[in-house]
Amino acid sequence: MSADTILVVGGTGNQGQAVIEQLDRLDTDYRILALTRDTSTDHAQATTELGAELVEGDLADPETLQAHLDRADKVWATINFWAVGYDAHIELGENLAEALESADGLEHLVYSGAGDQRSDTDVPHIHSHYVVSERLRESGVPYTGLKPVYFMENWETIGVEDGVLAFPLDEDTHHHQTTYRDTARASAVALENTEEFAGNEYTIASDLLTLEETAAIISDVTGEAVEPYHVPLDEAEAEFGEEFAVMCDHFINEGGHTSFEANIRRVEREFGFTPQTFEEYLRENGWEGGKDEPAHVPGWVKAMQ
Ligand SMILES: NC(=O)c1ccc[n+]([C@@H]2O[C@H](COP(=O)([O-])OP(=O)(O)OC[C@H]3O[C@@H](n4cnc5c(N)ncnc54)[C@H](OP(=O)(O)O)[C@@H]3O)[C@@H](O)[C@H]2O)c1
Fold this sequence. Notes:
single chain; alpha/beta; Rossmann fold; 7-stranded parallel β-sheet; 3-stranded mixed β-sheet; 46% helix; binds NADP nicotinamide-adenine-dinucleotide phosphate
């Protein structure tokens, strides 16, 4: 039987709004509570247009979460590492875990972390997502971990400049990518089917491309020539920041990522939908004939604004 009420922690953000849209598409009668620190912001108000009720609370002040958790049957959550950094990410995760432990009768928690999250990585945000997800799992609420890989939405702001797609990947790296929509679709399916999904973790991957292939697809869709430029790792920090540079080092030297192809098929098999290809993403997000305005602003870009 469907749950009545789902609390979406991060519900006014990119991923959370996509989750609310996908829950709505399931054609169930969920009541959706979107947690926000401030109901008056534009992004909070935009969330009400998706049919969610805004509820005010702050992960930094766990007492503000309790009344909302008490209303909820199930919880979806993400925490934006980029806005707060490593230590605060873990602290906010700890606060959420403690609040979950104080709530009664929660049936399911779905946490959206990061692809390849594991204990032995040197990439701070991948590691903090791992720590948070382990702590949330220990809360005792039936837990599903989703691990989305690099979001295609990042290309909206990285973009093509003067016909060049510059990114710190070498020629051999197959770069696994997904979308807010696919991560949200998987989230909605998991929330709807608690018994099947609780206790498991899933990498969410939709397409697997080298930088050459990524540039070629952008070129096909926009109709403009696009050349890939492999930014050397020792120049990546100056251009993209330290965290991004460490992440790309990880993609090149620890990933390889061809193994992730299996995860694309697994998404299809386990969640019952065909993940978006990069070409489909571009066509659905206004890249045909050229791109003027970004369709999305990724969380790490918001954190820098
Ligand atoms: N970019 C990628 O390729 C990629 C891939 C995989 C995973 N990720 C992960 O995706 C995450 C970012 O997700 P996103 O893009 O959805 O972020 P986002 O758009 O910046 O949304 C952040 C959400 O968190 C809420 N929030 C922030 N601080 C809060 C607090 N103290 N208490 C309660 N709510 C709070 C915000 O609500 P209000 O502002 O309304 O309060 C908003 O709803 C990052 O952790 C990143 O590591 C990114």
